[in-house]
Every structure is written in C-alpha cells, then in structure tokens.
Specification:
11 helices; 2 domains; 3-stranded mixed sheet; 16% strand; 44% helix; 3-stranded antiparallel sheet
Length: 302
C-alpha cells in the first residue's frame, strides 16, 4: 500500500468562497466551495487513517489471493452463477483454509494453456496459446476458516427511513428508476447502470441506503454508460463516493463506511485532490436536486 506523508498538513485544494454574495450551501448557483473543500479535507484524513488500519490490511492480503478474472470469464461466471460473490479454484480455497463441499458444482471458465517451444534462435518461448476448461467454486460452496471481513457500520433511525423515501421520490422525479432487490450482482449494496436504472439491496439500514442511493445517483449524473469507458474504476468510485459523502454532510447523515470504501480503491489524498473539480460539480448538481431536503436539515439544526 502506498505510504502517505504529511497527511494531516496537506490541503486538498486552496479555495475561496464565491466573490459575489454570501456563500449558501443549499443554493447550487452559489455553492459554498470552501465548505465542500472542508468536507473533502476531513474525508481525506479519515481515508488515510482507514488505509493504514490493521483490519483493512488483513482484508487486502486475503483479497490479493483471489485471481482477477477477464471480462469473458466474468460473463461466464455470471451466466452460470448469477449470485456468486467470491470465487476461486479448488486448491486456492484450500490455501485459504476452506474446503469445497462434496458434490458442489464447479463454475466453468476458460484457463490459458500456453504452448512452449523453441524460437528460430533456439530460445525457449511461448509459441502458441490455447485455452482449456477449468472450474472455480463460489464461497457459498465452501466451509472452513472465516475469511477476514471489513466492519460495516449501521446507520439506523426513523429520520433516515423518511429521508430515504424522499430521496427516492426526488430521484424518480429526475428521471431515474429506483428498485430494490434481495441480492445484487457481486453482492453489491447498490448498482448504477448508467441508463437511469438504480438497484439497491433491500434489508440494509435506512441511513446506509440513503448514502448508497446518493452514490448511485452521482454515478448516473456523472458517469453515464456511454462515458464510463473514459474513466478508470478508481476515478468513478472516488468521485461517486466523495460526492455522496459531501451531500450526506449537508443532510446530516453519518458516513462511517466511506473512508474504508475509498481505501479499498487505493484512493489517497492526492487522488481526491486530482478529482476535486468533478467532485465539486457533482455535489453542486445533486444538492440542487435535493435543495428542499438540505434546507429542511439546516432548519432542524438551527
């Protein structure tokens, strides 16, 4: 993991408030950029702390032992086992202290099988590449030692249940379609398809769902399907999660899981800084959409 220096003294970006009029964070036309940058500074500090925590270190060490499958194999896995969460080969599970249960049905994938030979110069090299069928197994088909897991903090309360309903109404008025499912692909908490569709995992605490919904709205507003190829995964997740964190600050919704989420994508203080302009724009756009909810929060806090 990349070592960070001077984490608590480096600013995300120097910012001054808009020159004309008093900055008002509930007004998207006069967004309080200084307040947004203050939120991002806090998020950077919290992410630095999470990135160097023992829990995340153990988790990443385990995750690194799972193979990264090609897009083709990911499609094969999804076709055969749509509810798969974490897959690995038979021996890989054994190395992790788990055993594939007897009778479990493997998920067929394509494994490269290079053919070695001699070049014209007499050197040994791969002269051809063929593929063979291999099998992996989902974690649900194994038993044994528990894998390291990250703590997920629940954000609960009737206020958040009400706010979630209001956020869904705002999203749907804005042309988005929000649905709930018992289980999402790769066991995600939320999915944005970039075409106006958002899916949320039912059963999660209302406060967590509020933050997840804002995260997915950020994807829909900033990363439409036809544009996503222009971004790295780190960029889109950094931007969406940081926007959700900022909007949640305005709505007084705690985000205890955001720092760890960003650390999983190797988002550092420098990465946040390089995406700051996009994050600011995203916060302003969404706060404009939910301005009445932000104003109600400000009134409650006054």
């Amino acid at each position: 993991m990349k070592t960070h220096t001077a984490a608590t003294t480096t600013s995300i970006a120097p910012t001054t408030a808009p020159a004309e009029g008093r900055a008002n964070p509930t007004n998207p036309t006069a967004a309080n950029l200084a307040k947004i940058d203050q939120w991002m500074q806090r998020l950077a500090d919290e992410t630095d702390q999470a990135a160097h925590g023992a829990e995340l270190t153990r988790y990443l060490q385990t995750v690194s032992r799972f193979y990264s499958y090609s897009a083709h194999n990911c499609a094969l896995i999804a076709m055969q086992r749509p509810d798969a969460t974490r897959v690995a080969g038979y021996r890989a599970w054994q190395a992790l202290g788990r055993q594939v249960v007897k009778g479990a049905k493997g998920i067929a994938i394509l494994c490269p099988a290079p053919i070695k030979g001699k070049t014209d110069a007499g050197d040994e090299a791969v002269i051809a590449l063929r593929f063979r069928t291999g099998y992996v197994f989902d974690q649900e088909d194994t038993t044994g030692a528990d894998l390291p897991a990250l703590t997920v903090h629940a954000v609960e309360g009737e206020r958040y249940a009400t706010l979630l309903r209001q956020l869904i109404e705002v999203a749907e008025r804005g042309g988005l379609r929000v649905t709930f499912k018992h289980r999402l692909v790769w066991d995600a908490n939320g999915v944005s398809y970039g075409d106006g569709r958002i899916e949320l995992k039912e059963g999660n605490p209302a406060g967590n769902l509020c933050k997840t919904l804002i995260h997915e709205i950020a994807h829909e507003r900033m990363h439409r399907a036809e544009e996503r190829r222009a971004f790295t995964t780190q960029q889109v997740e950094c931007q969406a999660e940081a926007v959700a964190y900022g909007v949640c600050q305005a709505l007084n919704i705690p985000c205890p899981n955001s720092p760890t989420y960003l650390a999983l994508y190797r988002v550092s203080r420098e990465v946040l800084a390089s995406n700051l302009d996009a994050i600011r724009r995203g916060i302003v756009v969404i706060m404009g959409e939910i301005a009445p909810l932000v104003e109600a929060t400000e009134t409650e806090a006054a």
